[in-house]
Design goal:
single chain, alpha+beta, Chloramphenicol Acetyltransferase, seven-stranded mixed sheet, Condensation domain-containing protein
Length: about 400
Amino acid sequence: MQPYILKRKKSPFEDIGFSDTVTHIQLAVKIDEPKIVPELVNQIKRNFLPLNIYETKEELIYKKGCSPILQLPNNIKDCKSACDWIYENRQLESVGMATLAHNNEYIALTANHMIGDGGLLKSVIDLLQNQTQLKYSSPLPIAPDEAMYEDLVNLDKNVLSVYPEQLTNVVSKFKPSEKIGEECRYALDQIDVNKLTEGNLTDKLWTALLLSMAAYNGKINRWGIATCIDMRPRTNLALTWSNCCFFSILSHTAPVLQNQTVGDVANALRKDMQRRLNNNEMSSFLRISESYYENEGLSAEISNVGSVELRKPLTDAWMQIRFNEKNNPSVLSLLTFGIKDQTRNDLILRLRYPPCRMKDEEADVILKGIKHSVYNIPQNTKVQDALDELKKFEAQYAKSKNYNIKFD
């Protein structure tokens, strides 16, 4: 008699959206007590479902402990390096869709995005700090499009997750590369949230990204952005470790008006997002083919995992995503997460771009424009004044770095 195998077919969203990609998310944490690392690793092994899942072309299959635990090199000196190492040394998906490694100071984890997202990584941090409320429910991950089946059936077929023609775009000042298919790249920076003036941080990030893109191209064409959303708190589904990948992306817009302020743009963006949520359009992203779209240049996207408040035994953390540009060639995505402790309140900025459509120095200029906007442009600033300030700032910054970028 053959042993019983627990498995299921991939859902349409999983199959179409992820099967031809190797998109992985990573988490690394720093531990201040080496002696408790083994117990923390065991907690992750007991609860982090992707460590027990491998895939075939059509199915997800449960096999406890299918992914061997690896030893992190002792020369790993920070959480980001640990994340990069675990991604580059991950198991094949046919062996395990997640990989875990550790040494005496760091624990690192990578998981296929098909069965993992930023919300799940935050839950791991909660677990290690004894704050999780998630329960075990099923050894197999719950497919989001099946969990949201009724919403999808009742949703107007003409409703799209993202309307590419409505998004703010930025176009490189250089000829596009003929070499296509490299890994997406990231420009990195951080913001000290303690130094910010009053105002909603999400509003600041929305408008900072759009204004910096517009300043780089020297004009405003439209206000539109695609925002990633954690669906978990917005549904009545039970919150469990089996809700591994449960996010959506919705585009939302603001009108371009004379004499409008930066705050006017933010308020209109928030109002349009709320309209879409009230209309139950969140599930539209789970339709097959909705996760990929094409556009001229790069279109604005933002994903904020939220803030992590570190408590002992954790003293640092890092989250990231890595994948090939061919899976998302027309997106400029600002990925952020916060790290807080008794003295630190940092917002990490990671600006993702495909190297076939944007050069490293261009991404650096745009990211520095975002940072300048968040720190220095109040929400009551007139949009035209903000644009003029950012155009001047970006040109001066590029000159100071000896970048070969021409501004109008």
